[in-house]
Every structure is written in structure tokens, then in C-alpha cells.
């Protein structure tokens, strides 16, 4: 049963005020038939409708249930790999309570620490209220979450923007690496006053990423080489280039024997936003600004319109007089600049010097962020916050509960897997068919 | 905007009349050859010579090439090949041969210069040894590339080869140790690959999820899963969970005793023989059997295949699962070949090079095997060059497979084309 087919009776249910004239009654009935939107109808039926809407397969419900399903599977993994729990299951039929209690303890403790590490630790808050520790300790989890979020916003946008233009940018990793490398060269190569140096370095990072994004965009536009193949290859080329770069004379830190570059100038680092050794830095604000900027670009600018048109149907866009080749190239340049900024954020926000793995995995994580954010700028921000929180919480989970932080990768992958297949989530939870059209993140297509 | 914009089809390349594929390649080769003659000539040692020994060490039959002369001469051979491609009107017919000669000459130019410039006592190349290494390095790539070919010929993109190798390696290490048998490890590795293949098939075919996205997600899943299990079981207790034995080497009687060819071709463990035999079987299967014709037709035009009564989805499930088995066994090779312990992320991008090999081999099993051998040779060359202290950065040689693949897909040297229905879910109706 779908919302539009709500029986007429619900509009004139006994709870409603009695209807005086037939005219009003028919109007009400007409309203009920016309509007599937729960907000428009007052009274208790609206509540039912709200629940009905909630339990139909809409974006929010599917996302929340995907998260839930992923956590359940994660919990099963925790139990399976815990000797205490598996031992309790060894005598399950003698004392089933033991096994269930042991499972509950292991899983709840792990996820409690995930939460405490990502959002707030009640002990630190009471400690602050009692004057035992500073407020910074209470804010530490949030600071960590935002620190992990910042670069993911950029790489997530880099992938999402390309998605909207009909391109799958697997190369955010390589673009972030090249962005960070160029930013690093400017960061320790030049010596400029504060602010100026930071701006120069950020711009350098964006240009580095943009140049590296240009290559697959241009190849796609000119020769039709599939961007997935070229960007996968370019990721590895970037990786080897960086590992070569950081051991060159003039780049490698002369005081170190391992593969690490000179540290970036103090003036080029992203300023911290809080005291008390909290790591959160300006990068998260830049990320929000980027979200606003990309939102404007996509929805309000001419280029954004062309980008979306080409993404939806390149043939129609071409017929309408748009240059598909120029749009592909432009999209990849902007996506590359965003990913380059992501790499630069890591370098200037937390790392401080180039190493072979300076950008970590932010490019690949950007893919999952963009998918979870469904290719929309604000969705990307929310998704990046979720994955940033998982990363931050994962660290605490590892040190306090002994659950390897790798579980976060499993959770991330499962969440996105379920989101990519809304039909699966719908059948698991027996959701009613909703506006699933909106749930398809991308249209499946070939090389 | 003018109407000329309409011509900008992204998949149509307008070939200018004069700059045909042969002429463009020729121009590139001329530049490369001159560059090699100058750069490698300068890097080479003028008085020393490069010695190529046909054995696994410094002893045995050998031939020597004077370093600088050789480097310049081979560079010029590349140039000549390029000029021929530029000038000959029949260049099209000789294209493969000339490019092949040029590539071999380029490698020899590099070798002459680097070997002669090595320090005293290291100025030789054990050819048998390097060839054996090339084959050894290429084996996981061949496994991965064959898995890719099987999937994509049937219309399912498989980016998740990396994940299949990784999970296969993990599973092989774990079960080979627990069961104290390498063969159990091989089976467990294959089973893990099948499991990933099943997920790929299920989501790609049943739920029609974009297959490239799916592959990326599966890689993240496998990375997370193996990392998690590694920390939970193997990190603390490697003796019980992560001490796999080594696959025994089976030397083929009589043939293994042949000098030069014996050690190169007939002294390997079972998986190496297995993968090359399977590769050739798949090649003949694809192009010579009913199964192959059906697989290819499902990959090229599923609607037509369905019309004549081929079960499109069933065949796709079947082939993706078999591909998973192959890739998983490839993963087990990573640990069982030398009895290595499993380590986090030990596939180290081999799945992506395998993908590159498949593309470079033009979605053809034998082509993919040859491409994997070429990429294996590049890796062996890099190991050899760093062993003799060559100044050429190893990172640039590591980039080579990826660069070659980009050149191939960009159509600079001939064009590669995927099966027509690759990655497109089939909806009946």
C-alpha cells in the first residue's frame, strides 16, 4: 500500500471534529486523496501517516537502517572473534544466559567506547563539572571527529561532484596525494608571512590536484578513455611519485634517515580552533565553505547546470549545444582541486610533513562518503561527519575495548553496500515501497 | 555556440589523415630512441661491458656487450624502428614486429648502460634468474587477470580483484596453519574468493548496483575484514593462526634437467603450472566451446543471447563465481608460494595491476597472461636494477605498468575495447 492510496475513511475518522456540511466533507476527502504529504494533514492520522512515511523506504529510513544492519553485523564479528564469547557459546544449551550476556557485554562495551570516542564521554563531562579536568577533555571526542571529518568533506565532494557530472572519480586518492605533494613543496620551500603563506599553500594544493584531475578528464574528453581505468592507474603513479619525491635532496628532512620531508613552515599550517591540545583546525570550516561553494556551483551556476545535464544524459546535453568534452574536463579539474585541497588539509592540519602515506586513505574514503551523501553537497558533509565520527570513535574502541580500528572499514563498507542496494534493506525490514527512485545513487553503466 | 560542437562525441575520435596510429607510434619511438641513445649512452660505462649469463648466478655460458656502444646502438635501433614506422607505406603490416623490436631494444639499451655502470663484480645479469623472477611475480597477476577476463567477458565488471586476492591470502594463511596443510590453504583461499565473487554477483545481478562502485566497496570490506581478523587472531598468536608452510616445488622429471629452459619452465610449485594451464584452457574455452560462445554473447549482447534461449543471469552468476575461485587461489599463492605470513594489505595493489593486465591484454585470456608476464618482468627488472645499485629510481619502474595501461586505453598505441555489455545489468523485457 502506498501513501497516495490511503482510504478515504482516514480523513473523516471518528477522532476528527464532526463535519457540518457535505461540501466540506467532500473537500476533506479530496484533500486526503490529493496529498500524500503527511505535513499537510493535522490530527492523529498525521501521526499514523508519519509512521507510515517513516516505515516506507525513504532516504533517511534506509540510511538509518543500513547503519543499524552494519552495526549488527559488526557486533556478530566482535562476538565471533572474542574467545570469551565463543567459549560461552560452547555450552550454549547448558546456560544460554551466559552466552547472551557475554555477547552483550562485548558488543555494548565496544560500541559504547565508539560513541564515547566520537561524540562525548560522560565521565569527562562530569569531571569538568566537578572541576577535575578542563573542558577541553570533554570536547576532545568532538574535536577528533571534526579533525577526521575535514579532509573527508573535500574528497567526498571531489567524488560527488564528478558523480553528478556522470563521471566516477576513483582518482581522488591520487589527486589528494599530488595536491599534498605540491602544497608540501610550497609549504617548506617558500618562507612567507602568516596568512599569505597559508593561502599560497592551499592554492598550490588545489592547483596540484586540479592538474592531476585534468589528465583523466582530458583523456576522457579527447579519446574516450574510461575515467575509472585511468584514475585507478593515476592513483598508483601518484603514490610512487610521492615516495620518490620525499627522499630527494632538498625535500627529505636532513635530520632524519627515514622517508619524510622537511616540516612545513609554521606560517603555512592551518590554525587550531581550540585550546588544550585539541587537534581540530580551520580545515573543517574550509570544508563547510567548500560545501556551500559546491552547492552553489551545482545548483546555481551555468557550469553546474551543464554538468548535471551532461551527467544525466550526455547526448541530450550535446544536442542542446553544450560541450560535453569541455564539461568532462572542467568537472575533473574542479574535482581534482577539491581532492587536492583534501590532501592539503591533512598535510597542513595534522601531518605537518610529507610521508609516503601522508594522506592515508582519504581518497578512497571519499568514495564511500560521496555514495552515502548521495552525491549532494550537504549530504556529503553529513556523511563525512558520520565517517569522521566512526574513525575518531574507532581509535578509542581500539585502545579501550581492544577491538581493532579496522572494524570501522567493515562498518563503512557495509553501510554503503546496503545503501547502494536499497531494495535489499527494504526486503530485510519489510519496508513499504517508497519513493525509491530517489534512492538510486547512480545509474549502473559500463566501462 | 556553433553547431560544430555537435561533433564532440566523447567516444568518437576523429583521426587526422596523416597522423595514423603507425605514424604517431613511430614519432614516439624516434624520440624515445634518441633519448635512450643519449641518456643511457652517457650513463653507461665506456670501458666496461655488460655480461648476460645464461644461468641463475655468475657462472655458465654468457655473452657480453660493450656498455656505451651497446646502449647507443640499441637506442639507435629503436630510432630506426620509429623511422620505418613513419616512412613505410606498408607500416601497418609490420606494426607489431617493429614495436616489439623497439621495446626489446629499449630494454637492452637500458640494461647495457646500467649493468656496465654497476660496480666491479656486479657487471652481469643472471638471465635465468631474472626470467624466473618475472614469472614468479607475474603469477598472482595472471590469476587476477584471468578472474577479471572471466567476469567481464560475461558482462560483470570486477574491480574487486584486489579484495579477492587479499581475502584469499588471509584465508589461505589461516586455514593452512590450522590444518597444517598447504592444500587446505589453497582450497580455503579459493573459497574466500568465491565468497567475494558471490557478493559481487548477488549485488550486481540481483540488485543491479553499479559494478564499479560495488567493486570499490568490496575492496574496503575485504581490507577491513582481513585487518580486523588479523588483529584479533594473528597478531597475538602467529604460531596458531599465521604460520603457513610453503608449497612444494614439483620439478618435472627429465624436462626439469634441461639447461636454461628447465629452471625457467619446469621447476615450479603446483599453482604456477595450474594458472598457466587454466589460462590456456579458458582461452580455448572462450573461443572454441559452446560455453565460451554463450559467455561472450552474454557479455556483448545479452538481449540477443536471451532471445535464443541462453540463461543470461545464470551464466553470469556461474562465471563470476568461477572467477572468484581463480582470484582466491591467486590470493593463496601470495602466502603459500614462499610460506610467507599474512600481513595487512599484503596484496599491495596487485589486484589493480591485474586489472591493468586484463585491459592491456584486451579482455583476452592469452593477452592478459602476456601482459601479466610483461608487468612481472618490469618488477623483476626493478629488483635486479636496485640489486646492482642502479641510479634509476625504482619508483619510476614501478609506475611503468600503470603508465603503459593509460597509454593503451587512451588509444595512443592502438585502442582497447571492453565487451559491449560489460557492467550493464540485464533486465529481461
Automatic annotation (TrEMBL), chain A:
Protein's membrane topology: Multi-pass membrane protein
Localization annotation: Cell membrane
Amino acid composition bias (Polar residues), ranges on this chain: 20-29
Swiss-Prot/TrEMBL keywords: Cell membrane, Membrane, Transmembrane, Transmembrane helix
InterPro entries: ABC_transp_permease
The keyword Membrane is annotated on this UniProt entry: yes
TM helices/strands, residue ranges: 60-80, 87-107, 146-163, 175-192, 198-219, 228-247, 278-298, 319-341, 347-372, 379-398, 410-429
Positions of the UniProt region annotated as Disordered: 1-41
Protein name in the entry: ABC transporter permease
Native organism: Luedemannella flava
Automatic annotation (TrEMBL), chain B:
Bilayer-crossing regions: 25-45, 65-88, 95-118, 130-149, 156-176, 182-205, 212-230, 250-266, 271-293, 317-340, 352-376, 396-414
Keyword entries, A-Z: Cell membrane, Membrane, Transmembrane, Transmembrane helix
Listed name of the protein: ABC transporter permease
Matching PANTHER family: GUANOSINE ABC TRANSPORTER PERMEASE PROTEIN NUPQ, SUGAR ABC TRANSPORTER INTEGRAL MEMBRANE PROTEIN-RELATED
Native species: Luedemannella flava
Membrane-topology annotation of the record: Multi-pass membrane protein
Compartments, as annotated in UniProt: Cell membrane
InterPro entries: ABC_transp_permease (IPR001851)
Amino acid at each position: 500500500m502506498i501513501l497516495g492510496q490511503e482510504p478515504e475513511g482516514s480523513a473523516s475518522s471518528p477522532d476528527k471534529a464532526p463535519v457540518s456540511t457535505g461540501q466540506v466533507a467532500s473537500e476533506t476527502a479530496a484533500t486526503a486523496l490529493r496529498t500524500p504529504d503527511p505535513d499537510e494533514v493535522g490530527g492523529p492520522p498525521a501521526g499514523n501517516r508519519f509512521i507510515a512515511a517513516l516505515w516506507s523506504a525513504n532516504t533517511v529510513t534506509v540510511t538509518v537502517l543500513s547503519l543499524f544492519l552494519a552495526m549488527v553485523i559488526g557486533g556478530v564479528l566482535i562476538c565471533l572473534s572474542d574467545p570469551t564469547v565463543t567459549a560461552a557459546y560452547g555450552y550454549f544449551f547448558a546456560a544460554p544466559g551466559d552466552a547472551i550476556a557475554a555477547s552483550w557485554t562485548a558488543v555494548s562495551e565496544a560500541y559504547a567506547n565508539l560513541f564515547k570516542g566520537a561524540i562525548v564521554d560522560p565521565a569527562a563531562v562530569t569531571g569538568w563539572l566537578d572541576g577535575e579536568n578542563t573542558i577541553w577533555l570533554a570536547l576532545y571526542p568532538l574535536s577528533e571527529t571534526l579533525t577526521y571529518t575535514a579532509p573527508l568533506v573535500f574528497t567526498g565532494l571531489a567524488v560527488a561532484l564528478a558523480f553528478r557530472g556522470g563521471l566516477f572519480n576513483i582518482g581522488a586518492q591520487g589527486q589528494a596525494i599530488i595536491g599534498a605533494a605540491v602544497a608540501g613543496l610550497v609549504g617548506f620551500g617558500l618562507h612567507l608571512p602568516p596568512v599569505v603563506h597559508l593561502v599560497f599553500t592551499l592554492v598550490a594544493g588545489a592547483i596540484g590536484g586540479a592538474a592531476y584531475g585534468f589528465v583523466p578528464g582530458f583523456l576522457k574528453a579527447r579519446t574516450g578513455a574510461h575515467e575509472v581505468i585511468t584514475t585507478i592507474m593515476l592513483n598508483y603513479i601518484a603514490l610512487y611519485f610521492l615516495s620518490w619525491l620525499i627522499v630527494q635532496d632538498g625535500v627529505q628532512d636532513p635530520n632524519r634517515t627515514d622517508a619524510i620531508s622537511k616540516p612545513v613552515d609554521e606560517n603555512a599550517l592551518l590554525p587550531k580552533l581550540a585550546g588544550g591540545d585539541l587537534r581540530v583546525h580551520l580545515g573543517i570550516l574550509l570544508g563547510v565553505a567548500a560545501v556551500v561553494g559546491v552547492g552553489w556551483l551545482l545548483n546555481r551556476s551555468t557550469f553546474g547546470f551543464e554538468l548535471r545535464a551532461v551527467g544525466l544524459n550526455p547526448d541530450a546535453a550535446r544536442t542542446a549545444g553544450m560541450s560535453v568534452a569541455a564539461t568532462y574536463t572542467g568537472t575533473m579539474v574542479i574535482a581534482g582541486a577539491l581532492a587536492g585541497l583534501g590532501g592539503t588539509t591533512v598535510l597542513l592540519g595534522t601531518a605537518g610533513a610529507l610521508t609516503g602515506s601522508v594522506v592515508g586513505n582519504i581518497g578512497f574514503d571519499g568514495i564511500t562518503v560521496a555514495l552515502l551523501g548521495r552525491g549532494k553537497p550537504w549530504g556529503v558533509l553529513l556523511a563525512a561527519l558520520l565517517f569522521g565520527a566512526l574513525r575518531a570513535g574507532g581509535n578509542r574502541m581500539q585502545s579501550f575495548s581492544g577491538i581493532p580500528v579496522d572494524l570501522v572499514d567493515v562498518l563503512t563498507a557495509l553501510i554503503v553496500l546496503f545503501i547502494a542496494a536499497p531494495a535489499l534493506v527494504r526486503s530485510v525490514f519489510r519496508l513499504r515501497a517508497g519513493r525509491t527512485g530517489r534512492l538510486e545513487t547512480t545509474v549502473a553503466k559500463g566501462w | 555556440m556553433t553547431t560544430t560542437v555537435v561533433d564532440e562525441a566523447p567516444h568518437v575520435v576523429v583521426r587526422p589523415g596523416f597522423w595514423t596510429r603507425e605514424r604517431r607510434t613511430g614519432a614516439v619511438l624516434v624520440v624515445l630512441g634518441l633519448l635512450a641513445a643519449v641518456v643511457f649512452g652517457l650513463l653507461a660505462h665506456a670501458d666496461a661491458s655488460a655480461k648476460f649469463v645464461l644461468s641463475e648466478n655468475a657462472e655458465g655460458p654468457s655473452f657480453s656487450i660493450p656498455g656505451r656502444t651497446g646502449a647507443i646502438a640499441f637506442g639507435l635501433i629503436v630510432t630506426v624502428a620509429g623511422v620505418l614506422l613513419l616512412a613505410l607505406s606498408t607500416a601497418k603490416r609490420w606494426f607489431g614486429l617493429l614495436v616489439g623490436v623497439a621495446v626489446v631494444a629499449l630494454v637492452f639499451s637500458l640494461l647495457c648502460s646500467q649493468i656496465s655502470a654497476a660496480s666491479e663484480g656486479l657487471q652481469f645479469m643472471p638471465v635465468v634468474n631474472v626470467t624466473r623472477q618475472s614469472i614468479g611475480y607475474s603469477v598472482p597477476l595472471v590469476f587476477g587477470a584471468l578472474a577479471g577476463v572471466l567476469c567481464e567477458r560475461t558482462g560483470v565488471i570486477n574491480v574487486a580483484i584486489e579484495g579477492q586476492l587479499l581475502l584469499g591470502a588471509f584465508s589461505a594463511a589461516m586455514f593452512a596453519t590450522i590444518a597444517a596443510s598447504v592444500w587446505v590453504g589453497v582450497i580455503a583461499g579459493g573459497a574466500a574468493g568465491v565468497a567475494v565473487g558471490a557478493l559481487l554477483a548477488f549485488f550486481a545481478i540481483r540488485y543491479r548496483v553499479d559494478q564499479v562502485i560495488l567493486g570499490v566497496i568490496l575492496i574496503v570490506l575485504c581490507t577491513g575484514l582481513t585487518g580486523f581478523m588479523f588483529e584479533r587472531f594473528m597478531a597475538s598468536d602467529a604460531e596458531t593462526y599465521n604460520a603457513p608452510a610453503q608449497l612444494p616445488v614439483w620439478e618435472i622429471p627429465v624436462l626439469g634437467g634441461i639447461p636454461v629452459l628447465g629452471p625457467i619452465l619446469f621447476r615450479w610449485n603446483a599453482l604456477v603450472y595450474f594458472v598457466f594451464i587454466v589460462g590456456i584452457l579458458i582461452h580455448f574455452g572462450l573461443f572454441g566451446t559452446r560455453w565460451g560462445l554463450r559467455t561472450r554473447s552474454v557479455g556483448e549482447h545479452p538481449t540477443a543471447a536471451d532471445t535464443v534461449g541462453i540463461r543470461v543471469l545464470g551464466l553470469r552468476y556461474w562465471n563470476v563465481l568461477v572467477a572468484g575461485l581463480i582470484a582466491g587461489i591467486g590470493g593463496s599463492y601470495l602466502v603459500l608460494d614462499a610460506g610467507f605470513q599474512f600481513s595487512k594489505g599484503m596484496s599491495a595493489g596487485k589486484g589493480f595491476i591485474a586489472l591493468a593486465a586484463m585491459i592491456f591484454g584486451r579482455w583476452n585470456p592469452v593477452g592478459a597472461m602476456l601482459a601479466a608476464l610483461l608487468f612481472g618482468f618490469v618488477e623483476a627488472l626493478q629488483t635486479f636494477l636496485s640489486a646492482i645499485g642502479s641510479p634509476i629510481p625504482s619508483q619510476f619502474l614501478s609506475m611503468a605498468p600503470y603508465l603503459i595501461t593509460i597509454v593503451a586505453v587512451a588509444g595512443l598505441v592502438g585502442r582497447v575495447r571492453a565487451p559491449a555489455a560489460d557492467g550493464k545489468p540485464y533486465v529481461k523485457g
